[in-house]
Amino acid sequence: MTTLHPHPDGAERPYAAAAVHQGVIYACGQLPRAEDGSTPEDMADKVELALDNLQRVLEPAGGGLHSLLKMTVFLADLDEFDAYNDAYLKRFAGLRLPPRTTVEVARFRGRTRIEIDAIAAVADR
C-alpha cells in the first residue's frame, strides 16, 4: 500500500490524504478549503472547491474525477441538497456519474457545510 500525505491546502494533518492499494485510491474527506484557508460562502462554490481538492488528491495516484468508483458526500443541511446537486451535476457534465451517497451530518467545524470522500480507480495509462 502507498500513502499520499500532501493535502490540497498544504496543511499538515495527522492522516494521509489518500492511500492506494491494488489499483484503488481511497481519498480522505475533502473540504471546500482554499490554500489560504478560506472557505467560500456559496454552496455551488463550496462544491466546486471540494471537488477541485479531491481532484488534486487523486491525480498524483493516477486517478481523477473520471475514475471515481464511489463518493460519499456529507452535508450540514439537506435543505441545501438542490444547490449542491446542481453544482455537482454541472461539474460532472460529460463524465460518468459515480455511485454516490449523500447524508446530513449534525456538525462541521467552522463554515465548511460539505465534505466529500471518494474511492477511485487508478486510471489506465
UniProtKB/TrEMBL annotation:
<dbReference type="InterPro" id="IPR035959">
    <property type="entry name" value="RutC-like_sf"/>
</dbReference>
<comment type="similarity">
    <text>Belongs to the RutC family.</text>
</comment>
<dbReference type="Pfam" id="PF01042">
    <property type="entry name" value="Ribonuc_L-PSP"/>
</dbReference>
<protein>
    <submittedName>
        <fullName>RidA family protein</fullName>
    </submittedName>
</protein>
<dbReference type="InterPro" id="IPR006175">
    <property type="entry name" value="YjgF/YER057c/UK114"/>
</dbReference>
<dbReference type="GO" id="GO:0005829">
    <property type="term" value="C:cytosol"/>
</dbReference>
<dbReference type="GO" id="GO:0019239">
    <property type="term" value="F:deaminase activity"/>
</dbReference>
